[in-house]
Amino acid sequence: MDPTLVLLVGACAFATSMLTEVLGFGGGVVLLAVLVAFLDPLVALPLHAAIQVVSNGTRTLVRRHDVDWRIVWRTSLLLLPAGALSLSLARQAPDAVLQAAIAIAVLVATWLPEWLSRPLPAPSPGGWIAMGGVLGALNPVVGATGTLAAPFFRAGTKDRMGFVGTFAASQVAGHAAKLVIFGAVGLLPAAQAPAAAVGIVGVVAGTWVGSRVLDRMPERRFDRIYLVAITLVAAWLLVDALR
User: Fold this and answer.
1) pLDDT at residue number 219
2) pTM for this structure?
């Protein structure tokens, strides 16, 4: 792999991991967009998954006391079977349609409760399991589904620390399941190991820096920044899908 591209992956991994540590989401989809711009999607997806396992794993370790493990295991139950069933779509699904649908769902889930002045209800135990199935099915096709799930995790956790920790732990499970599925069909190219290694170093450093920012951020400011950021990410996904 081109050394310049390897360094670009490391720099993007650092920046996006720092963003995700502060807001709890968003960095993964940005990193995936950069990787897809330079690599074949079926190479970019497993490389992205490997980096994100470490990124979210580091974040989970930092926020381990804030994680709601009941949510994590419920959303993890159907990841592998649902992902295995949808793997064939990774080579033939209309990516733009899926991406647009995810962006619209994110905007509705984020802003409809604001417009109605009612908070988005936290999913029930069965709802978390069903969500895990949906995310598992989308994982091999879309690659970064965190933006879709973020509003529900925000509604189902008590504060910003719980949201960041719980969401990170669930993302570890999601990306790990994706690695298992891609590995089972031989889609883990060894040639991308240097980029994966540099990206892993970048996400660990980015998580450490971002955690310092999050610790000092008031809850009200976090809520405002969260709404703006998730709207921008979803809008970007929609515009990109329609191009």
Assistant:
1) 62
2) 0.72
